[in-house]
Design brief:
17 helices
Length: 530
């Protein structure tokens, strides 16, 4: 029985425990266990070693023990060391727990039993002392744990003595959920209102929602329109006009523009005065071929600037200088070099326009810039260049050009007066709502009459040639006027310029003539006038 005590481990509470064999070895005894003493059964439950952590009582030193050797023939008892290796202090314990005195350990009966001799009476067992209600009873809230050999009881220790929710804690949850929290027991989890309680206000989102897919773009536009319609804070509110219904369609030339308010009527006296001034300048210029070419170059150059400036107002950035130079020189080149000047000028305009944007002389996107530059040159310079081809005939060039101009003027003047006074039916409501069928028919009739009665008496024109010229000019002037109105409608402009009071710009006044110049040139070729 001495094997469990042979290892010399450090004492737990400053107590040195000696076994029987070690005690005999220290006394010098070599006798074995008594043979006549029967072995007594050891009850582990009754004689189990118990450790008391309380401070040990001061032991009365024996004279023999003080000298280092006990008296011969007396058994050795374990006592406290004079200097314990470790002792529990208040700082090492949990708050509220007092240090507990160490209890002596009772050893099981050894083969050689000797009545222990001690200077003080043995202490009572722990269980008896606790039952007696002595002063050494353990204190605290945690009861002594049962022995590991006893069956489990299933009891759960209480962590907090006052583990209960108060009314204030329940009210705090109400601010989050909107209602008092609900705690379920083990028999009400199958109730149908479980999901409703968790959803608070019965709002279902995502996959739980019964609503269909939402178009985010349409919803954003609807919210943006609502915010724009909302009046600013503190601003006076006024009744808003109901928006006019728009006809669906991809093109910008839709019915929403036809329902626009009618522009103010033209200042007729100013328009008449301006027309007379232009007529005087034209009559003076048409006296010589060279002056007529100069007048054509001026009109084409100003019209080019007006169109390029209008495009720039709407975000396009054409190479205005390239288009202006090419358009202005085109009538002169056509008069001297004939039709062969056209491919050269068109090629040069395309190449120079690309280099213009390649070198970033004009900021902006190259593709719209080059396209708008070619459009300006082709529409104004290309069509206006046919005047140079007509004026290439030094004998009949000015008369041919004068005949075309008279037919176009008749179409515009008579069409305007008849349409403004008697017109009711729009001929092209999506493009030009102010042009009426009555005015258009009157203008065409006037162009034919002037071609036969007036132009037919101007050589080299004849009445038959004048009739053909009047018919073709009536159709060309109508198409040219509509195309120019289409461009203005797309750019959302009333006029391209304001150089001519009462008329707008030069392009607004000579738009029909630009489409009639190629007609007159090829008609003269057909009649072999050149």
């Amino acid at each position: 029985m001495s094997e469990p005590y042979d290892d010399e481990r450090p004492p737990v509470e400053g107590v040195r425990i000696l076994g029987a064999e070690e005690a005999r070895a220290s006394l010098g005894e070599t006798r074995g266990p008594a043979a006549d003493e029967p072995d007594e059964p050891v009850d582990l439950h009754e004689d189990e070693p118990q450790l008391d952590l309380r401070e040990p009582a001061p032991a009365v030193p024996d004279e023999a023990a003080v000298g280092g050797m006990p008296p011969e023939g007396e058994p050795v008892t374990a006592g406290a060391r004079t200097a314990p290796t470790w002792s529990a202090e208040h700082d090492d314990l949990l708050p509220g727990r007092e240090p507990v005195r160490a209890r002596p350990i009772s050893m099981p009966s050894a083969p050689v039993s000797a009545p222990p001799v001690s200077s003080e009476a043995p202490e009572a067992p722990v269980a008896a002392r606790d039952a007696g209600g002595g002063d050494d009873a353990p204190t605290g809230e945690i009861p002594p744990l049962p022995h590991w050999t006893e069956p489990p009881t299933g009891a759960v220790p209480a962590i907090f003595a006052d583990d209960s929710e108060t009314a204030e804690e329940l009210d705090a949850w109400a601010s989050v959920t909107g209602a008092q929290p609900r705690f379920r027991s083990g028999d009400d989890w199958a109730e149908s209102d479980f999901a409703e309680d968790l959803s608070a206000e019965n709002v279902k989102l995502g996959a739980l929602s019964n609503e269909g897919p939402v178009d985010e773009d349409e919803e954003f536009e609807r919210d943006l329109a609502a915010r724009r319609r909302a009046p600013a804070a503190g601003a006076p509110t006024r009744p808003r006009r109901q928006p006019r219904p728009r006809t669906p369609g991809p093109s910008r030339l839709e019915a929403d523009r036809t329902t626009r308010d009618t522009p103010p009527a033209r200042d007729l006296p100013t328009a008449i005065m301006t027309g007379l001034a232009v007529a005087v300048v034209a009559i003076v210029s048409f006296t010589h071929n060279a002056t007529t070419v100069a007048l054509v170059c001026v009109v084409v150059g100003v019209a080019t600037l007006e169109l390029a400036s209008s495009l720039r107002k709407r975000g396009l950035r054409p190479a205005t200088l390239v288009a202006l130079v090419a358009s202005t020189l085109m009538p002169v080149a056509a008069r001297h070099y004939g039709p062969s000047a056209y491919p050269v000028f068109f090629g040069m305009v395309v190449i120079v326009s690309m280099l213009w944007f390649l070198w970033e002389i004009t900021p902006g996107r190259p593709l719209p810039g080059v396209a708008s530059t070619v459009l300006v040159f082709a529409y104004v310079g290309g069509l206006g260049g046919f005047a140079g081809l007509i004026l290439a005939s030094s004998r009949y060039g000015v008369r041919l050009l004068l005949g075309v101009a008279l037919c176009v003027i008749a179409y515009d003047v008579f069409g305007f007066f008849v349409g403004s006074q008697f017109g009711h039916t729009a001929v092209a409501p999506k493009i030009s709502p102010n042009k009426t069928v009555e005015g258009t028919v009157a203008g065409m009739i006037a162009a034919v009459i002037v071609g036969v009665l007036i132009v037919g008496h101007i050589r080299p024109w004849t009445m038959g040639r004048g009739l053909a010229l009047g018919v073709l000019v009536a159709a060309g002037a109508f198409v040219g006027d509509l195309c120019e109105s289409m461009l203005k409608r797309d750019l959302d402009l009333k006029d391209f310029g304001s150089l001519l009071p009462g008329h707008g710009g030069l392009l607004d006044r000579f738009d029909s003539l630009l489409f009639c110049l190629p007609i007159a040139y090829y008609l003269a070729l057909q009649f072999k006038i050149f």
